[in-house]
Amino acid sequence: MSDMRRVPGLSSWLFLGTLVWIGCGEGGSSRLPPSGFKAEFGKHNLPTEMVANQTLSVEVTVRNVSPNTWPSKPNPRGMNAVHLSYHWLDRKRQPVVYDGLRTQLPGDLKPGESVTLKVAIRSPDKPGEYVLQMTLVQEGVAWFSDQGGGQISLPVSVVKQ
Q1: 4 lies in a domain?
Q2: Residue 91 falls within a domain, yes or no?
Q3: Is residue 26 part of a domain?
Q4: What does the pLDDT read at residue 41?
Q5: CATH number of the domain that 129 lies in?
């Protein structure tokens, strides 16, 4: 007989030490409607200069100004969680790094709520002048900046080590 226990507070089961996700909440997280991609950015300590191929930890405050709750957990197919991420663009505004490192929300973010996140940012590996575009992404769905949501665009000089 297998050892099967319910893990309190999670929609999961424990089978002989293996955690198996069967969804988040009732039926898992779902795709946001177009109105769900509205975000405002507040305080941040993003750098204006970084060393090439450097990873920094910074703080960024984001507020959900949409009428929808942003899910922090993925659905059973690994989609729909909202993460904070970024793009690096060159001088011509062409992507150099499109999928930046991801930062998870600490929990679902309801309309009107804000959160300050510790964000890891890795700079491009070549020195130059770039634009750091910080935004949110609903995994497997869309980048908030592509849906009219908020973003931070900041020029950053990337220098040699």
Answers
A1: no
A2: yes
A3: no
A4: 97
A5: 2.60.40.10
**For the chain, how many structural domains are there in total?**
1
* Per-residue tokens: 146: 């592509």
Q: Which domain holds residue 47?
A: 32-159
Summarize pLDDT for 72-124 with one digit per residue, the tens. 999 999 999 999 999 999 989 999 999 999 999 999 999 999 999 999 999 99
Rounded to two decimals, the pTM is: 0.81
Pairing of strands 49-51, 82-89: unpaired
Sign of CA dihedral 68, 73, 76, 77: positive
* 122 vs 110: CA distance, rounded Å: 29
Establish if 27 belongs to a structural domain.
Answer: no
